[in-house]
Amino acid sequence: MDTNFVIAQIFGILGIVASVCSMQFKKRKQIFIALLLLNLFSALNFVFLGAMASAYVCLFAILEMIVNHLFERKKKNVPVWVVGFYAIANIALGTLGFSGWLDILPILCALIFCATILMKKEQNIRKATLANQTLWLIFDLSVGAYFFAVSNVLTLISTGIALYRYQDKKKTRTKSES
C-alpha cells in the first residue's frame, strides 16, 4: 500500500474527531477552533493524496480563520471587503491547483465557508455546514479521501443533531401549540 495514501487516511481519522466535535459545541468560538483543526487535517490529507486545489483552499481557510479571530478579539465584524478578498483568493488558489472539473467542488466549499464568516447565528453556521459537507463528501469519495468521506457523513449526522438540539425552543413550542 502507498505510504502517502496511508498517511492521508491518518489525517482523515484526525479530521473525523475535529469535524464531529465542531458541530456539538454550543459557542461560535468553539465551533471555529474545531473547524480550524479540521482544515489543517484536511489540507494535509489532500497534500498526501495529491489533490492540490483542495489542499490550497483548506490551508487558506486557516489564514481566514486567524484573521477572523483577530477581528473577533477586537469585537469587530469582519468587513465585507475582506470576505470578498477571501472569495477571490479561494477562486485563485483553487484555479492554481485545478486539475479537472472535480476541483470546482473544493472551490464551492471554500466560498460557502467564506459566507459562514458573516453569519452570527450558530444555527445558520450549522445549515451552511450541511451544504458544505455534502459537497466535500462527493469530492472526498472521488479522490480517495475515504476517512474524510466518513467524517463528512458523521458531520452531516452530527450537524443534524445539533440543529435539533439547539433549535429555537420558543418557535418549536409556538408551532406545536398551533
Short description:
This protein has helices at about 5-20, 30-50, 50-75, 80-95, 105-115, 120-145, 145-165, 170-175. With about 180 residues, it is mainly α.
Key terms for this structure?
single chain, 178 residues, mainly alpha, 8 helices, 82% helix
Give your account of this protein's structure.
The protein has 178 residues and is mostly helical. The chain is 82% helix and 0% strand. It is built from eight helices and no strands. Helix 1 (3-22) runs parallel beside helix 7 (146-165) and helix 4 packs antiparallel against helix 5. The longest helix has 22 residues, at 28-49. The chain starts with a helix and ends with a helix. The model has no long low-confidence stretch (mean pLDDT 86).
Mean pLDDT, rounded to whole units? 86
Rg over CA atoms, rounded to whole Å, is 17 Å
Outline the low-pLDDT stretches. none
Distance from first to last alpha carbon: 60 Å
What structural class should be given to the helix and strand makeup? mainly alpha
SSE blueprint and pairings:
Blueprint: H1 3-22, H2 28-49, H3 52-73, H4 80-96, H5 104-117, H6 122-143, H7 146-165, H8 169-177
Helix pairs in contact: 1-2, 1-7, 2-3, 3-4, 3-5, 4-5, 5-6, 6-7
